[in-house]
Amino acid sequence: MRVLARFLTAVSDAAQFPAPTLPEVAFLGRSNVGKSSVINSLIGKKLAHTSSTPGRTRNINFFEIRWPGKPRPELIFADLPGYGYAKVSREISQEWPSFIEPYLKLRPTLALCVALVDVNIPPQASDEQLLDFLNALGREFVLVATKSDRLSNNPLQNALRGLTERYSAARVIPFSAKTGKGCDELWERIRQTAQAFADSPVSATDRVG
Ligand code: GDP
Q1: Using one digit for the tens of pLDDT, what is the confidence trace for 147-172?
Q2: Which class is domain 4-207?
Q3: Residues near 87 by Cβ (< 8 Å), separated by ≥ 6?
Q4: How far apart are CA 16 and CA 38, in angstroms?
Q5: Of all helices (H) and strands (E), which one includes residue 166?
Q6: Structure pTM?
Q7: What's the CA gap between 132 and 43, in Å, rounded?
Q8: Three-state SS for 198?
Q9: C-alpha 36 to ligand 1 mean position (Å)
Q10: In angstroms, rounded to a whole number, what is the distance separating the alpha carbons of residues 196 and 146?
């Protein structure tokens, strides 16, 4: 699907989040999981790039998404900093409490978390930590199994089954930025959630509460 995407702002402090107006989709995953590639596939151009410099203050990057022919943006993509670059616990203890955790806990317009896992490697403690955290918050999330083109059919099916068993509540979408696999399915999920969110009169703060 072709959409129009525009960079909005980069934020490294909870006080700077843009006003919560449109339904928001957050992208989360370990560094190098293929997050930028997933976002770029979805929007059909190179827009997202994450810093791989460890130790530097990193941002949540916000993008406005507009459907062609529509006058106003309808959705926000939030690209969160990759975690697990070095020592998970250190990064999580330094960065998460200051603005990532408040974002995930309190953002009233956060409609869907897209949690990315590399389907080529065994389950990682940092991924489990994130998914357990999202579960505990009651956040809606979809699991995207990245780089699925690197596995042949049988190992891929086994890996996907493993993810489904571990996270029974989550829908798992095999994805490849290289072949485009999973792109339509992920868009479908994003659109459904954004629509349901926009239609609902209940504030998201109540949902998360
Ligand atoms: P990020 O750090 O999570 O934003 O990851 P990137 O999107 O920069 O990707 C990290 C590396 O994985 C790069 O070398 C990409 O070329 C590679 N990569 C990303 N997505 C895919 C994919 O779907 N298939 C394959 N084969 N490689 C991928």
Answers
A1: 999 999 999 999 999 999 988 878 99
A2: alpha beta
A3: none
A4: 25
A5: helix 153-166
A6: 0.90
A7: 28
A8: helix
A9: 7
A10: 26
